[in-house]
């Protein structure tokens, strides 16, 4: 076995060398000259099906890279024509050599006279070479220049094999050298996108066991360099496909295991269980096989119909009926051998227990109604059915169908035996669309910007894409920072080593000079000379936009740091901008400001925003709306816009409705303007008539007004009195009636000032007609789809979407001729490599060039990477490496943000050690919430009078603390399902702490409970639901979720459960620790097994800080939360501090404390008590018949007391003390998410 492992590792080593251009350039010639592939194929190990399986798979990968379609010298990718030309030239030379050597032998004549295409396949070559005897074959090899120039070389190769004769070895070498190899893209196009059972449970391709690194796998690797874009896409295609296959395997195993398939006495299949995600098939049959398209050998389409019986719960039935077009499902055949009643054993292999035989993927085309027609999904109402039977029309994979059809007996067995239909969570079921997108990219000529090409492949100068290294034509010498700077001092702070020279902007009506005693006011334009360290600062004035407040600019109020300003500067310039931002360093605010500056500096350009999650996209969108960006230019694609905390709808159809509504509003304003000019208001009938009205009436009157006030005679007669000259503006202004709702439109003090006001009014009017011109297309187009597409490709300037949506909709966007100039990516370090690359190619090239000008990537590679569930793909293939991280490893210039504004300084110390010189922003040291309780910065013990004075968390002695949690009833962590870790003691302790905080007055939306495992998350949710969810005094926390899911979010107070008590688990990854420690702003409380995590070397720096405080939860229950912060606490006796040393004590303490708090509130503030218990009481009251209504309300209150559990006695309070039986998983295991961590 050691020799086998060595052989596999050696082939892996050869693959790594061949897949890198610098080493391949020289090494590929050696591989070819020594015939390594052929010799390895003929080895004894390769002939053994079991021991040599992995070896042969690795040889296939090595063969792929040896024959890769690339010029070994120049490194350029070869086209199909070039590959064919090289192949024909090689075979022609072979025929010439044979003709020269054996032209007099008739039996060799067909070989050198035949056409190249008739002899370039393996079977033909074997046939012809077999007719040549060994002596002549050796002579031929000597003359072909294929590394067999003499007998010594031939003997050296043949001596490796004792079971083969010399002739067979030479024939195999010649055939392998001259046969035509399949085109890589054609092989990819013939590959099924849905995995079958042969791939899903192939351990060499999709390993399920924990990868320890002691053996290699037949998988591609994502290193820092790639041969070509084709190689780059192909590796990502295979890895994404296999990772999706791993997730599909887990879903299938989970769903089928819950169905409990058993074999009946008559050899039929029965199902003893049920599953939310799987249902038995009543019947399946193929209804249509479309003819093959020209040039293809597979059917154009294969349709089938599935009939299932939805005799299940209504909620599950609704889920099945909600299957939509393009949803992916799986048809499964099981033939179990187990008898009825046999339980499923999760520790045993899956396939033997359920008898799984076949798996085929399918795509839902729609559900059929009673008449057999597809149900229209655009109609909200569902059709009525008389029975529970439902029929779904599906599309099968034509490539897989062709493969199955090659064996008729197996074909009938497969498609006549499906008995289970499995569906998946729609959020995790988009793999087919992404794979199709990658395959489409490989079938088209990918054009990336020239300044990005080499960096994407990992070659060249890493600084080449930085704005300072681009050509001078692509750099802006003068940058308009708009509202980036709050004042002149802000500029000096951001450029401390530069000399600031204030110049006058000749284009602006206001000016400043270096000799002026007053400091210039923003906005500023800067000309930065990095060599001389000089900045030419030009203040300018925003033109007056009109007399109304809502038209005034919305100014930025964030005082950006010098590093943030450098990132903004880089983002405005052409090229690649990389920003590394620690937690709370203002990455989102920075991104929004870059977008704001690009919007104002380049109004003709379009910016694409891409994020990993809807959460980040919505957070960015909400901040964009607060800046000076016209909302008609904003568009949000994909699902998730419903979570935006605004009443405005920024989806496609939401923006269409906004445009149509806005059009009517503007036309009403046009009608008002017409009436003010004593004209008929029918000019506001359409956008077109409004345009003519503007040209013939509005613009003409404005031009006449300008002519009158600029008339020389008029000016000369009034220059003696500035006030009289200002009166001319008011007297001649033609639109007084329209602006009659503005008080004191003109001030009458200055001619220049009033003229600017008049120009502002005209700009306001002009904007109305400009918007109507933009909206005119919506009058012409009638369908909602046409309008939304026009909005996407023409109207919107800032388009936001997730990386997943970009991958799913690329084909649609390209067909719509979607174009953009800039890309900004947030959470870049969390996005898969391929999902980062796809947004670069959402548009067709323009004259062979990509029009992309800027690529801004913002992220933090020291936090969690993209989620890869399979450990083998994560570690061996390095699939968790994002493109952002790869660029950092390559040395691409990055801007490191060095200040954080989220956590108080003491909490920041828990993770700041991972970052270089991470400081606090100014508000951390100024805002009361960071300085005073809750909490403050220090405490000290006055032992001389046995009292404590501190500025700390309300109700807590410490602002952060590690709480040691021991076993409860001799049980620590448990694992009811594989990798589904839970810890009941920690769950109860965490929930009790949450209840304690709520009783002190902490708002529930300020508290989040985090854990590191899905199993614990579900357990805590169960405990919350049972203990306090329905209690009006407590309720639920803001969120109960995992650390991984909460990345990118924050809350004031975090309660963290680490779960494990036997091994550290995946918290050993420091990146996960950084995320866990950096989510809290004001308070962090970690519940764990102290000795276990403290002893972990990787976590030492953080836990050494946590261990400074006692490991028992220390409480001060006499304090109460308030939104107003007091400067200090009263002096407390040490006896007033309560230490909680275990979970049971905490639960008992909270139970007693709850009764005290409810009694206190009832006695001190009865109205508050009633409002908490009966929040809807005031809504039930009616003005008339007040006394009678009050009696009714009292009766209702008594009824509510029974419902809510709030009685007159403390014993009736809705708080249940802990028992061993009342906490755990729900009976419905289908609702549980399986934890995929294998550590």
* Major β-sheet annotation: 7 strands, parallel
Q: Report the portion of residues in β strands.
A: 5-15%
> CATH class of the domain at 925-1162, anyone?
Alpha Beta
List low-confidence stretches.
507-516, 934-952, 1123-1129, 1178-1239
Query: From the helix content, strand content and strand pairing, which structural class follows?
Result: alpha/beta
Put the structure in a nutshell:
Helices cover 41% and strands 13% of the residues. With 1239 residues, it is of the alpha/beta class. Among the domains are: 2-184, no CATH class; 250-443, no CATH class; 658-786, no CATH class; 925-1162, 3-Layer(aba) Sandwich (Rossmann fold), CATH 3.40.50; 1165-1208, no CATH class.
How does the SSE layout of this entry go?
Blueprint lengths: L1 H17 L2 H14 L1 H6 L2 H4 L5 H14 L13 H23 L6 H5 L8 H9 L3 H10 L7 H8 L7 H13 L5 H6 L7 H4 L28 H31 L1 E3 L5 E3 L6 E12 L12 E8 L4 H8 L6 E7 L15 H5 L1 E13 L20 E8 L1 H8 L2 H8 L4 E4 L7 H13 L6 H8 L20 E5 L5 H7 L4 E4 L21 E6 L4 E6 L22 H11 L2 E6 L6 H15 L5 E5 L2 H11 L9 E3 L15 H25 L10 H23 L2 H7 L3 H11 L18 H30 L3 H12 L2 E5 H6 L1 H6 L6 E4 L7 H5 L16 E6 L11 H5 L7 H8 L4 E2 L2 E2 L4 H8 L6 E2 L7 H4 L7 E4 L4 E4 L9 E5 L9 E4 L2 E3 L1 H16 L7 E5 L2 H14 L11 E4 L8 E7 L12 H8 L2 E9 L1 H5 L5 H7 L6 E3 L16 E2 L4 E3 L2 H22 L1 H8 L3 H4 L5 H19 L35
Parallel strand pairs: 10-12, 13-18, 13-19, 14-16, 14-17, 15-16, 17-18, 20-21, 24-30, 27-28, 27-29, 29-30
Antiparallel strand pairs: 1-2, 3-4, 3-8, 4-7, 5-6, 5-8, 6-7, 9-11, 11-12, 22-23, 23-32, 25-26, 31-33
Helix pairs in contact: 1-5, 8-11, 9-11, 14-19, 22-23, 23-24, 25-29, 25-30, 26-29, 28-29, 38-39, 38-43, 43-44
